[in-house]
Write a structure and sequence with these properties.
The structure holds two protein chains of two kinds. By secondary structure, chain A is mainly alpha-helical. Chain A contains nine helices and no strands. Chain A has one domain. The chains are: A mainly alpha, B mainly alpha. The interface between A and B is medium-sized, with 29 and 35 residues.
């Protein structure tokens, strides 16, 4: 008991006023704002796909982009909540990415069904995965760096969701940059690697966010 | 907690004391030794101190504290069991280090029967009746016209002789 009292006294002496962490909504808004600026900058730098005007008139493409953006918003919010030990007592909201992912899978399935006759496969393949990874690196580093300042008690999930959030930025960028209409190619080289990165995030979260 | 976050050291010390009083039974129910409870409680208090900026004064304090306590408890138990597994001895290794196979023996049924035949006639008959034909000591006594305790004594002496011969 003496040890505990000693420790409490020591901690109390060390208790300088601390700045309270931002609310998770504000935190996620900050991350989303930074990521959006980065996305716009990347698109200005790399260029929008030349047929973007035409694509924006195709409902499945628009729905796909909206769903990808929803994944980005949901994962950003979830990652911000997961940065707090008690998830800011908003457990249900943490599960928002599950709902958006389920809807996204449904949209991709329906887009695939509607892709008749199927659009020709592009000549390239893994180059897309590499491009998405490279573009996602900066948002990933930024998000992990920001999350380390907090105290996640679910670091595996926090890592996974943070990486998914970063990769959704990369995926969004490539869909708006690359002239490609093959849904098969997009699933195989854009979205499946994105999910694989989410799985990698489980491990990365433990390595980076453990405190 | 709000006062503590503003730098009020007395309020903070009181809060930590109250928190440790609250968490002690929670940990004691989940750990076997008092020393473990003490160690983990200290670790939790340090974690609370490190993460105090993540507490939102507009929300209840207990869920925040218990989230940290559970997290540290799980970490502790994971490390504890991982440590136990690291120090566990493989059964195959243990088998190799044993001096001999304890379940195997050089004594066979035939060798015992041969030794029984070498016993004095009365003792050999008693053992045959009891162990080969399944009679009880009372039934053997009736069959051989002896009393029950004499049968038991004779059987006991026969066992002793057999043991000494077979152990050689």
């Amino acid at each position: 008991m003496e040890n505990i009292d000693d420790l409490i006294n020591k901690l109390a002496q060390d208790a300088a006023p601390v700045k309270q962490a931002s609310h998770p909504y504000m935190l996620s808004l900050k991350w989303m704002g930074a990521a959006l600026a980065y996305l716009v900058f990347s698109l200005i730098f790399s260029g929008l796909r030349p047929d973007i005007g035409l694509k924006l008139q195709q409902p499945w493409f628009v729905i796909e982009m909206v769903m990808l953006a929803s994944i980005f918003v949901a994962t950003s919010l979830s990652a911000a909540l997961l940065s707090f030990p008690d998830m800011h007592q908003m457990r249900r909201l943490v599960l928002a990415p599950v709902v958006t992912f389920a809807l996204f899978v449904l949209v991709i399935f329906l887009a695939w069904q509607a892709d008749s006759p199927p659009a020709p496969l592009p000549v390239h393949s893994f180059e897309c995965t590499i491009s998405i990874t490279l573009v996602s690196l900066l948002p990933a580093v930024w998000t992990f760096y920001a999350m380390r300042k907090f105290a996640s008690t679910h670091y595996h999930w926090a890592g996974s969701i943070a990486l998914l959030s970063a990769f959704s930025v990369g995926a969004l960028w490539l869909r708006l940059h690359e002239v490609n209409d093959s849904i098969m190619h997009v699933v195989e080289w854009h979205y499946l690697p994105m999910i694989a990165c989410g799985i990698l995030g489980l491990w990365l979260g433990k390595k980076i966010l453990k405190w | 907690m709000r006062q503590s976050l503003a730098g009020d050291q007395r309020a903070y010390a009181e809060l930590l004391r109250e928190t440790s009083r609250m968490l002690r039974p929670f940990l004691a129910r989940r750990l076997s030794f008092e020393s473990e409870v003490e160690d983990l409680l200290q670790e939790i208090l340090i974690s609370i101190h490190k993460a105090r900026h993540t507490y939102d004064g507009n929300r209840p304090y207990k869920p925040w504290v218990y989230a940290i306590a559970k997290f540290r408890l799980q970490d502790y138990l994971r490390a504890h069991y991982a440590d136990q597994l690291r120090h566990a001895v493989e059964w195959s290794e243990l088998e190799e280090s044993l001096p001999e196979h304890v379940t195997e023996t050089a004594i066979s049924y035939e060798s015992i029967s041969a030794e029984v035949q070498k016993l004095p006639e009365k003792q050999a008959t008693i053992l045959q009746l009891m162990h080969q034909e399944g009679y009880t000591a009372k039934e053997v006594a009736e069959k051989m016209g002896m009393n029950e305790s004499a049968v038991k004594v004779a059987a006991h002496r026969a066992y002793k002789i057999l043991r000494s011969k077979l152990e050689r």
